[in-house]
Write a structure and sequence with these properties.
This protein is an all-beta fold. The chain has no helices and eleven strands. Helix content is 0%, strand content 50%. The model has no long low-confidence stretch (mean pLDDT 97).
């Protein structure tokens, strides 16, 4: 079965950094584009970033461009999201998701809280 297991996240002050990880199993990770999506309290899902299968091309929402970096290690079957210069509006549950254009598998979600 496909499993996406997330780690990282937590409470950080504005301007701080966090790194999220998403460990994949049950499929050939290196063949699939991967994504990060988030959901802020009381709001809908927001696409954050996408990385193509080899890791050479990345895409970002305008809201995180220049602050977040998506990357992957295909040898370790792991997806990452490095989040820098965090803002209170980045507070959300973050999910990794497999595939494009449909996200057919999701991680369990990890909470990121940006607050003083």
């Amino acid at each position: 079965q496909v499993h996406l297991v997330q780690s990282g996240g937590g409470l950080v002050q504005p301007g701080g950094s966090l790194r999220l990880s998403c460990s994949a199993s049950g499929f050939t990770f290196s063949m699939y584009w991967m994504n990060w999506v988030r959901q802020a309290p009381g709001k809908g899902l927001e696409w954050v970033s996408t990385i193509e299968s080899a890791g050479d091309t990345t895409y970002y929402a305008d809201s995180v461009k220049g602050r977040f970096i998506i990357s992957r290690d295909n040898a370790k079957n792991t997806l990452y999201l490095q989040m820098n210069s965090l803002k209170p509006e980045d507070t959300a549950v973050y999910y990794c998701a497999k595939g494009v254009p449909c996200y057919n598998y999701w991680g369990q979600g990890t909470q990121v809280i940006v607050s003083t």
